[in-house]
Amino acid sequence: MTTNYITDRHGIRRYMVTIEVNGIEYTRVIKANVLLVNFLRDELDLTGTKKGCELGDCGSCTVLLNDRPVNSCLILAIECDGMKVTSIEGLAETESLDIIQQKFVEFGAVQCGYCTAGMIMSAKALLMKNPKPTEGEVRAGISGNLCRCTGYINIIKAIMAASGQEAAI
Amino acid sequence: MYLPDFDYYAPESVSEALDLLTEHKENAKVICGGTDLLPKMKHELLAPKVLISIKKLPNIKKIEYVKGKGISIGAAATHNEIVFSEVVNSKYPSICNAAAQMAANQVRHVGTIGGNIVSAVPSADLPPILIALGATAKIAGPGKERVIPLEDVFTGPQQNCLEANELLTEIFIPDGDMTCSTYHKFALRRAGALAVVGVAVALQTKGCADGACSIEDARIVYGAVAPTPMRGVKAEAVVKGKMATDDVFEEAGKVAYSECKPISDFRASEEYRRNLVGVYTKRCLKRAIENGHK
Fold first, then answer.
1. B158-181, pLDDT tens digit by residue?
2. Nearest CA in chain B to A68
């Protein structure tokens, strides 16, 4: 067994993990029960990733794990040891926003904003795999992300625009 | 929501995993995708002292076609690994379709076929189509390994036949004479919703290319309408040996309506579910014959 741990004075085991987040490797000693979303928010102060339902239904906490979209509320940080995580903070590679972020602003695809980070990460995952999705593929791509403001139309328009297309809605 | 404390192990061999299960017994839970286990722990329905991850076991994610025998799917293969598997798509796209109808993309990247089976939720999408195709489950235990029909794994709602020190390692779909299969699910939304009713059909047909299509053998499985995935033996008897006509499908639907055992809950009433089972059985039979394994 490769798992490295120490036992603290309360008898709780703490495990060493190394996770690459937004291009930077972080090594931390954490308890096994730390969820990836809490690792990002509490350990690394990356609070862009939001917690919604915390049960894997709403998609607010979506991040890319080895380039695939996952709900970070349903993943143990310890299981991400050696993996690569991209959160909303890591999307823009330069000082300027990522094209998806720009189009979300341009199309008014942000209302209360709570779903936005997850929505954009799902859109990113979709466009990485499928640079010219159809409107139906965009809808399927964000079907794991709920917007309680129900502002889906502008979100779909923004994602289509980010792929250089115009939505027919 | 935060999880209670537990110890975590990631064994790298099956025997190591079984030793841990034997040592910790009911204090331990196996974790793979965790999409079912972690919400239960957050709701305090389960409070294991030890989690044993099986992700590092050898071949546990492997999907392969064993020539002349069938498709083997490791218990830790995720739903999306099945959806995009060339092996599964080339033999049984119906399995890929069932996997693609589950939850949302984020969950399908993490949740696994093994978890979908051992969690034994009556509305699970993979068991009906796998049972219809005659799948078996390989279960590893201390010093022994057993292979049983997949339908025997399910003993009740969220209950399976595995002992505390056993582990589901592989699902096997044997090559057979089934020429077509399909799974259709009715849910309240098109994504991220549990099946209100799911029906899977696998048929062995003869003469369909010549326009005189007869059904030689049939396996029909209902999901979400009984404590476990349920074989529709009476509906199967209706279609076996018959010509594939709309009248036969209609009759099978009527029998399916009466033989399923649904309950009423907040998703649908018993009567509504019965009606759906009838309609979906009829449609699945028709679609299976029209579309092959799609």
1. 999 999 999 999 999 999 999 999
2. B109
pLDDT tens for each residue of A77-116: 999 999 999 999 999 978 899 999 999 999 999 999 999 9
| Nearest CB to A33 within list B6, B39, B192 | B6
Query: How many contacts (CB atoms, under 8 Å) link A and B?
Result: 93
Domain boundaries, chain B: 7-53, 63-174, 180-291
Write down the pLDDT at residue A54.
96
**What are the tens digits of pLDDT across the range B212-252?**
899 999 999 999 999 999 999 999 999 999 999 999 999 99
In this predicted complex, what is the ipTM?
A: 0.94
| Beta carbons of B5 and A3 less than 8 Å apart | no
The pLDDT tens digits for A4-16 are: 899 999 999 999 9
Q: How far apart are CA A154 and CA A47, in angstroms?
A: 25
- At A94 the pLDDT is 80
Residues of A in contact with B5 (CB under 8 A): 12, 31-33
pLDDT bucket at A2, cuts 50 / 70 / 90: low
Q: Which CATH superfamily does the domain covering B180-291 fall into?
A: CO dehydrogenase flavoprotein, C-terminal domain (3.30.390.50)
> In CATH terms, is domain B7-53 a member of 3.30.43.10?
yes
Six-digit token string for B285: 């039979």
Q: Mark which of A37, A71, A90 sits at the end of a domain.
A: A90
Å between B42 CA and nearest CA of chain A: 8
* Domain spanning B63-174, CATH architecture: 2-Layer Sandwich (3.30)
Over pLDDT 70: what percentage of chain B?
100
- Are A144 and A86 within one domain? no
